[in-house]
Specification:
Number of domains: 2
Shape: elongated
Largest sheet: 5 strands, antiparallel
Number of helices: 5
Radius of gyration: 19 Å
Strand order of the largest sheet: 1-2-3-4-5
Mean pLDDT: 83
Distance between the termini: 56 Å
């Protein structure tokens, strides 16, 4: 029984570990109740994400039950795929994201996804990550200018939504900086436009 108890680097930023399955049931039901939406009595929660989202299936839904999603302040809805299809797709997506993002360390899938979209090398940008302990955040700077950076966070943000801060140095220490622009719950296009203003566009 040594296999199947750990997810390794799969879906970093989401909670789906074997030893947390019992707690996930009560935590997801509490989240749903707080937003005025009870989970079905036969729901089995197999994943929660950053305290605002959970995935579950009906324990009497057959050998390969349909997956449902519950998000904070929203009613549950089916994803239109079975558990086996969801798992296969999640694994394939993760492999593709990790190959294309080239992150320098472990990060949540949401951060790996935005790194892949940003295509840092094409833009002359690099990771300037002072948030190694925060799996849902990363810093991006222009190559050769690591302290003029954009901090990006996906903590408690829906898919494709971001918080960002554009920072400039005000002194010699890493803590000496000023936030000159920021945005909360923005889409990728808004994030990219802010980054290009702050870090510069790629050379033609």
């Amino acid at each position: 029984m040594a296999l199947g108890h750990q997810a390794g680097a799969l879906l970093i930023g989401s909670d789906l570990s074997f030893d947390r399955l019992v707690e996930l049931q009560s935590e997801a039901r509490q989240l749903a109740a707080e937003s005025g939406n009870d989970l079905p009595a036969r729901a089995f929660v197999f994943l929660t994400h950053q305290g605002y989202e959970s995935l579950f299936f009906d324990v009497e839904g057959g050998d390969d039950p349909q997956v449902h999603r519950h998000e904070e302040a929203k009613p549950s809805r089916p994803l239109g795929m079975s558990f086996s299809v969801w798992f296969s797709k999640a694994a394939d997506d993760e492999i593709g994201i990790r190959r294309s993002s080239r992150a320098s360390g472990p990060k949540a899938t949401s951060i790996l996804r935005v790194l892949a979209l940003l295509r840092l090398a094409d833009r002359g940008w690099v990771e300037a990550d002072s948030w190694d302990g925060d799996l849902c955040a990363i810093g991006i700077a222009r190559s050769g200018d690591p302290r003029k950076l954009v901090y990006i966070s996906t903590w408690k943000k829906g898919p494709g939504r971001y918080y960002f801060e554009c920072e400039i140095p005000t002194g010699p220490d890493p803590t000496d900086y000023e936030v000159v622009a920021q945005g909360n719950d923005v889409d990728f296009e808004t994030l990219l436009a802010a980054m290009e203003r702050h870090l510069g566009r790629p050379n033609p």
